[in-house]
Amino acid sequence: MRAVLETPWFSVEALPSRDDDEPYYVLSSPDGVVVLPITEDGRYLLIRQYRAARGRLSLEAPAGQIDAGETPEQAARRELLEETGCTASDMIALGAGGLALNRERSKVHLFLALGVRPEPGARPETGIALEPVDADELRDKVLSGECEHIAALGLITLAAWRGHSLPGLTPGDFRDVR
């Protein structure tokens, strides 16, 4: 294995191929977190920010990398504060997995943040707009493709399947979506 590109956020490594002489390229980066914040009044707190890879604004859940020495929960709390200016009374770990198993080594830890409220004196990072939505708006944004953050979509489903009460959503919402 050899690094062919290194940045402060990720590296690209060349692995020997099993099938031919061409290398297989893998993206390596620190593990990350994605947080589904639910405010004290039962709204889902999404963020809208510019994504250069997409060339447009994206509607998503707060997320980011786990810094050296941090636990996944510490990173989830930090990302929530940095990206929304809010804190949570409860941070529930739902599980972890990969996003692009064919190319990425990193794991993403999923969290449900309950009792989310503004932290006095804190503000969202520059370039991030908060978008609190109720369950109907969330469903509409997901089904229309406006919210395409796949980790956030998986987080919503995983939270429901693990038996967590999601404001305005019922188990039936996850059976027959057309």
UniProtKB/TrEMBL annotation:
GO terms for biological process: nucleoside phosphate metabolic process; ribose phosphate metabolic process. GO terms for molecular function: pyrophosphatase activity. It catalyses: GDP-alpha-D-mannose + H2O = alpha-D-mannose 1-phosphate + GMP + 2 H(+). GO terms for cellular component: cytosol. Its cofactor is Mg(2+). Keywords: Hydrolase. Residues 28-157 form the Nudix hydrolase domain. The keyword Hydrolase applies. Belongs to the Nudix hydrolase family. NudK subfamily. This is GDP-mannose pyrophosphatase. It comes from uncultured Alphaproteobacteria bacterium. The lineage of its organism: Bacteria, Pseudomonadati, Pseudomonadota, Alphaproteobacteria, environmental samples.
